[in-house]
Design goal:
This protein has about 425 residues and is an alpha/beta fold. Helices cover about 30% and strands about 25% of the residues. Strands 3, 13, 14, 15, 16, 17, 18, 19 and 20 form a nine-stranded mixed β-sheet that branches. The chain is globular. It binds ligand LLP. Specifically catalyzes the decarboxylation of meso-diaminopimelate (meso-DAP) to L-lysine.
Length: about 425
């Protein structure tokens, strides 16, 4: 935690606002985003591309956090959005996001979802499988429309990360295999379809990655494929999309390289290979999700009960848990917390931070140094901006938290807290 995030009262601040005030004003659990930190990530990525004079698109992987307010920030930053469902696309429509700056991913897009994409004339559909090419072709024919497409390939690269977060290895449910000729067959189908325009090749190797090697390998694969297809089909591939996955710091143990280092390595790799293969330099697209919103998010909770277990770390329990952040339970993900109302108190004990859900696995942090806390204190878990709210559930019929955006000392509610009424809104009487 940077010292400049603690105010004279010794409280944590977020976007220039005292975190305890946010907790008081909006209630807890609360997800608060430092909007300047979101903008900064976009600008860091943009800068690397611009310094290297490469055409690019930073396509925010909205699965990390997809809400109307977030999409409006992306629009302000001139970003692009990657959606993976009709729901994410609908959110973008509601946000007034420019449709030509949307790409659509997914390994089983439904007919209805593809129709929606075509009706709204989104920028590009990233096709994943033969069934999808057939569906899309039927829809385009029916609606007498055209669509840009990219082909997603499986690069055969295993990223060093949790196995649920690996997507690039050969045995993956995503994309067309290159070796067996699937990717080339997909290309032929697209090239012979007058309603589809082939604009690029996509690959994504995984998430929360800490090394550049995998990205360099992926970049080389993409260039080689573009070069092979140029030789064979006289095709100029306009875009190489290397996906997302840039790792972020969750705890002191994490030592990720700067996001711009990933991008710089990717650009250099593409430039070098393009030179070797005598290709025209394509545009490079990236799809960061976690690295855009993760570090900018804070989960604020109110501390309640405590249980001391002889010889073991005490449980300090908060008013949220696996319903607003499933990542510790699902991926054994680590986080760090601070006591927001005594952020510089060094008189610490070591505790476990437990959630309120009826599961023993609902432990948000297994080992946390914390000033001795009392019921009513505000706990802030850091770097929860990605895959926290977006994976939230109503388990135990707990309402999902509110979300606020904070910038320049001002806070704005961007997602209301769910009410009990919301929880039963879709329920129907049986008798
Ligand atoms: N592009 C594609 C095609 C993806 O599948 C993903 C993430 C991304 C981009 C963005 O990756 P990022 O930059 O956020 O790492 N729920 C898991 C992460 C799942 C990632 C799925 N795909 C977690 O909480 O760790």
């Amino acid at each position: 935690l940077e010292p400049n995030k603690i105010n004279v009262a010794g409280h944590l601040t977020i976007g220039g606002v005292d975190a305890t005030e946010l907790a008081h004003q909006y209630g807890t659990p609360l997800i608060a985003y430092d909007v300047a930190a979101i903008r900064q990530q976009f600008r860091r990525f943009n800068k690397v591309f611009e310094e290297n004079q490469v055409e690019y698109e930073v396509s925010y992987a909205s699965k990390a956090f997809a809400t109307v307010g977030m999409f409006q920030v992306v629009a302000q930053e001139k970003g692009h959005i990657d959606v993976v469902s009709g729901g994410e696309l609908y959110t973008a429509i509601k946000a007034g996001f420019p449709m030509d700056k949307i790409s659509f991913h997914g390994n089983n897009k439904s007919r209805a979802e593809l129709e929606m994409a075509v009706e709204h004339q989104i920028g590009v559909v990233i096709v994943d499988n033969f069934h999808e090419i057939e569906l899309l072709s039927e829809i385009l024919e029916q609606k007498k429309q055209t669509m840009n497409v990219m082909i997603r390939i499986t690069p055969g690269i295993s990223a060093h990360t949790h196995k649920y977060d690996q997507t690039g290895q050969e045995d993956s449910k995503f994309g067309f295999d290159i070796q067996s000729g699937q990717a080339e067959e997909a290309l032929k189908q697209i090239l012979t379809n007058p309603r589809m325009t082939m604009i690029g090749i996509h690959t994504h190797i995984g998430s929360q990655i800490f090394e550049v090697e995998g990205f360099v390998m992926a970049a080389n694969k993409l260039v080689d494929l573009a070069a092979d297809w140029h030789d064979k089909f006289d095709l100029d591939t306009q875009v190489l999309n290397v996906g997302g996955g840039f790792g972020i710091r969750y705890t002191k143990e994490d030592d990720p390289i700067a996001p711009e280092k990933f991008v710089d390595a990717i650009i250099k790799a593409v430039q070098k290979r393009v030179g070797q293969r005598d290709l025209k330099m394509p545009a490079i697209w990236i799809e960061p999700g976690r690295s855009i919103v993760g570090p900018a998010g804070y989960s604020l909770y109110t501390i309640g009960s405590r249980k001391d277990v002889p010889g073991l770390l005490p449980y300090v329990t908060v008013d949220g848990g696996m319903g607003d952040n499933i990542r510790p339970a699902l991926y054994q993900a680590d986080y760090e917390a601070v006591l927001a109302n005594r952020a510089s108190d060094k008189n610490e004990e070591t505790v476990r931070i437990a959630g309120k859900y009826c599961e023993s696995g609902d432990i948000l942090i297994q080992k946390q140094a914390l000033p001795k806390s009392q019921p009513g204190d505000t706990l802030a878990i850091l770097a929860t901006g990605a895959y926290g709210y977006s994976m939230a559930s109503n388990y135990n019929r707990n309402p999902r938290p509110a979300v606020v955006f904070v910038e320049n000392g001002q806070s704005k509610l961007v997602v209301k807290r769910e009410s009990y009424e919301d929880l039963v809104r879709l329920d129907q009487d049986f008798i």
